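Lecture 7 notes: from sequence to structure.

We start with a single chain of 205 residues. Read the sequence below before looking at the structure.
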Amino acid sequence: MTSRAVIHIVDDDDSLRTAVQRLLVAAGYRVRVYASAGEFLLEPPGDAPGCLLLDLKMPGPSGLDLQDALKHHGIRLPVVFLTGHGDLPTGVQAMKAGALDFLTKPVERDTLFAAVAKALQVDAALRATRSADTERQTRFAQLTAREREVFELVVAGKLNKQIAGELGIAERTVKAQRASVMAKLGAANAAELGKIAAELRNLST
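Now the structure, written as tokens:
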């Protein structure tokens, strides 16, 4: 994942942008550079792995403006602010909006690399979570209407006999449906089904 990651640098300072790019390329990173927030949005990275090194104050939309725009464009890259104009209130605002770090120019080489490494680790972890969530939703979509009914009743703590009575089917049919649900969802027991149910509810909110 990290080998395919791209570090995106958005900064209107040509010399700073070039210097940071050279540092990162020399360290083996793939890098793309942009002179403004608008330029970045004209060439969005889509869902490719990576992170964003973002200047705070630029002509036109600011770094905070771009950070906000990322959500509307479905861009989930971790953001590290790199600025010469930072102050505590702005840093707090950036962090509350989801930034991972807030570095002040000139930033030390090791500090920059540590922030980038952390951002790529966070990006990889978030992608793994999203992949697991997608797989869970895909598995749930494979349940039949009857299996979903059995699933909900098992999660509610009902016994096979009680489920059979509520659905008007034979207990052996409930056992078969229950086994099918557990196989499709990759659950070993009712407790794991309950956990899956909670995760699915969280995904729908």
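The longest strand covers residues 6-10. Keep this in mind for problem set 3.
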